[in-house]
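Sequence, please.
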């Protein structure tokens, strides 16, 4: 696996791949890779002839006071993991390469509607940062297919809208959440949890499972969500949101059957997110 740091080298290498009519599959990441990321690489291998991963801790998607500086940078370990997973090319640019004129001067991409509320409500500007860097990566790599994890459910919805609105000829693949044995969704931020918090963390998923069972059993949505918030607080979380939405993140109506429960909650300084699909009864 080659690691490239410069845009010109990336374009040249990918130009060769395209001339050989190879299908390019992209896995964008911020590094500190875990089994969830490696599932994205595995999926990309099924969809493409050449798998390109990117590692870039994107400052534009972090708000003031968030964990940009603390975000783990583990390039050497990540390179080994990507190589073993069958990744062909890693693009790991510097911030100056991606934003040569600085963040303030940078042209931005904003996806209205789907970026609002949920994580967009608790992290203002976050999805503009994601949409901007993902558009740039799509432009630099020009992949045929791109794989994103379903844990970041709203992020995937934002990127779907972006691909449609900007007419990127890219097939998007959502890859199911990879969980630890106790149910905790894998995330680079799990590494911030101390042992006590790590023991509590799976309660987020367990609560979602209990709420799913209640909702599928016909319990009222409002009271079920209120119970869920109470359970999370009792367990030691500080919930950001707990919501039931239609799969496209629109509001649930009387005719909605397929739906998704979405939650974000803090355990100390660590913000965890998770989601779970369910089917409402008739
Ligand atoms: O999901 C992530 O790791 C990031 O938000 C992404 C898509 C790589 C953009 O920086």
């Amino acid at each position: 696996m080659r690691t490239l740091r410069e845009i010109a080298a990336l374009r040249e290498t990918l130009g060769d791949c395209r001339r050989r009519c190879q299908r390019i599959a992209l896995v964008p990441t911020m590094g500190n890779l875990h089994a969830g990321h490696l599932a994205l690489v595995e999926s990309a291998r099924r969809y493409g002839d050449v798998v390109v991963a990117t590692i870039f801790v994107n400052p534009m998607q972090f708000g003031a006071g968030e964990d940009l500086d603390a975000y783990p940078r583990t390039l050497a370990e990540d390179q080994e993991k990507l190589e073993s997973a069958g990744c062909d090319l890693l693009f790991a640019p510097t911030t100056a390469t991606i934003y040569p004129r600085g963040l303030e001067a940078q042209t931005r991409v904003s996806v209205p509607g789907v970026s609002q509320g949920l994580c967009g409500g608790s992290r203002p500007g976050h999805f503009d940062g994601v949409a901007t860097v993902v558009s740039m990566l799509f432009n630099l790599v020009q992949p045929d297919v791109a794989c994103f994890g379903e844990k970041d459910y709203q992020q995937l919805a934002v990127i779907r809208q972006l691909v449609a609105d900007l007419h990127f000829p890219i097939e998007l693949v959502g890859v199911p959440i990879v969980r630890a044995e106790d149910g905790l969704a894998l995330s680079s931020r799990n590494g911030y949890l101390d042992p006590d918090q790590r023991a509590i963390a799976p309660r987020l998923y367990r609560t979602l499972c209990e709420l799913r069972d209640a909702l599928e059993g016909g319990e009222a949505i409002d009271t079920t969500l209120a119970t869920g918030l109470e359970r999370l607080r009792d367990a030691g979380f500080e919930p950001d949101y707990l919501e039931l939405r239609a799969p496209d993140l629109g509001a649930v109506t009387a005719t909605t059957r397929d739906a998704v429960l979405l939650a974000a909650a803090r355990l100390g300084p660590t913000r965890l997110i998770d989601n779970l699909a369910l089917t409402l009864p008739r």
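Residues 28-30, 58, 61, 130, 133-134, 152, 155 surround pantoate (CB under 6 Å).
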